[in-house]
Amino acid sequence: MAFKRVLIANRGEIAVRVARACAALGVQSVAVVSSADRGSLVTQVVDEVLCIGPAPSRDSYLNISALVAAASYTGSDAVHPGYGFLAEEPSFVEACTDAGLTFIGPPASVMRQVGNKLAARALAQELGVPVAPGSVAVRTGATASRIAAEVGYPVLIKAASGGGGRGMRVVHSSAQLGPELQTASAEALSAFGDGTVYLERYIEHARHVEVQLLGDGHGHLVHLWDRDCSIQRRYQKIVEEAPVTALPDHLREEILSAAVRLGRAAGYQNAGTVEFIVDMEREAYYFLEINARVQVEHPVTEAVTGVDIVANQIRVASGEELGISQDEVQVDGHAIEARINAERVPGFSPSPGRLTRWEPPASERLRVDTHCFPGYLVPPYYDSLLAKVIGHDTDRPHAIAALDAGLANLVVAGVETTLPFMRHILGQRGFRENAFNTAWLPHVIEDFSEKIR
Amino acid sequence: MEITSEEILAVLRVLRESDVEVLDIRLGELELHASKVADDHHLNGTGTSATRAVENTRVGTRERDAATRQLVEVPENTAPVALPAPAEGGAELVEISAPILGIYYTASGPDAAPYVTVGSTVQDDTTVGLIEVMKSFSPVLAGVRGTVRDILAKNGELVEYGETLVLIEPEQGRQ
Fold this sequence. Notes:
The structure holds two protein chains of two kinds. Chain A is an alpha+beta fold. Chain A has helices at 12-25, 42-45, 64-73, 90-98, 108-115, 117-126, 141-151, 174-192, 249-265, 298-305, 309-317, 396-408, 419-427, 429-432, 441-452, and strands at residues 5-8, 28-34, 48-53, 78-80, 102-103, 155-159, 169-171, 197-201, 206-215, 221-233, 236-242, 270-279, 284-291, 334-341, 343-344, 349-350, 353-354, 357-359, 366-370, 377-378, 385-393, 411-413. In chain A, the strands form six sheets. In chain A, strands 13-12-9-10-11-14-21-19 form an eight-stranded antiparallel beta sheet, with helices on both faces. In chain A, strand 9 (206-215) and strand 10 (221-233) form a beta hairpin. Chain B folds into two domains: 5-83, no CATH class; 89-170, CATH 2.40.50.100. Chain B is built from three helices and twelve strands, in the order αββαβαβββββββββ. Chains A and B meet through strand 3, helix 3 and strand 17 of A and helix 3 of B.
């Protein structure tokens, strides 16, 4: 291992996750925290802690010069960005490189290419990977109307530089198209600094399927199979599982192969995910986007493949060869992840505060990734993820049982969480029978709010 | 009523720099009581500045929302606020803390005289040191009139955001 010290440019559970991977590799780790995170769990599991700024993210976790300075001054060799914050910001990659630091992720040029959805879509088309019927960038209402009429309503407006569901809108009729186009473009401009939007056919009965890629700097690239993340609320994933079990094998094979072709063509290195939408009625899949980072839901893949994605990110970034052949990556059983957020259901409004009780479950069939502890103050400045509980067993029904038992044994008090709602989802017949799509969850939320009223 | 611990710290900073001794704020359901003098929350001059901030600040709320109440009661997760620290002879010292993370310099160059030494008199706009972030230097200003009583940060060493650099005894009778 060429690295001696890695700086973790993130917070919360992923910072703890990266620190543990460093420890497993015998690499020292440095945590940077905002003033609101001085007492956070990561400070207990790293070799050095630095406070880099006040609570607001823009002054701390998004402050490139403070992060690069902290890495340089602590003698770190590399920076792990986690997910979110600056994980997919090419200028951060360049700032690290300019300061002589290794960024643990793909090169800036690759990140730029795959980060723009229209560029990534063009790459997919070149390779013959299907993309959802739609358009290149639309600039006028007239062009949009013509394209929408061609692909048929409902259509989806998407932001070229977007992510996390922002700037996305479903339009059901031509009368709505003009005003929605303007709103989406304005939203995209303010959120991503780029108002470019495009249209895609909206697939009503869809599953969200994604493929985990892992590549090194020596031309090796493998997939770690697939995940199903169709349980979503406003395009935010709530429950994720691996492998995909709702699709026929031939379709899965095509998707896996398309993902690897895309990764190779883009010169992809490190961990990344290729996302697809699958039209269940047409049995057709379409490329969505490439995420150039480790994903929140990576533990389900780690559970079924036994490959430590975060440790491998660090290893390959240090220049080592991947050393894993495609044939060696086998799927063992099934894993399901439930995200426990500090939120009040049904509105999903944040519920920060002090955890008066926090007792995570433990069993051989469970993994809990968390930064929580009894007495921890959940700060109001950041995202509300408290923990990811992952159930792993021989098959999907047993994995559901393992996860459900785990959630039943998770004790949390002091803040409101999505725990009761997660258990409600697991109890749904539609979930147990694997008979859901990306539009399923809103009905379950309605149902749940009736129940708790 | 939602109030963040940062906002409370901002109020405390304003209080510290003003001539006001006791401050009561009522915003809807929320009450904030802060005092520079020893009232029913006696100041004994021990402990860290953060714990003093807690002792000297009483935040009450009639709201039954536990989350909101817990939020405002917890300043210890935040940067130590530069509340006056007691000095010998009863005067209170003002902590000048690092506004950014970086390398601290007590002088403008290796051969230059230090900006201030113990005993130096400073004005609000006196430079007490420099912080370098990747070759970009920013001055640290005293922000208060008085006398330097201690310099805690060492020349050429890394300082964190919020770390105490210099202690200043403010000038008395400043009206």
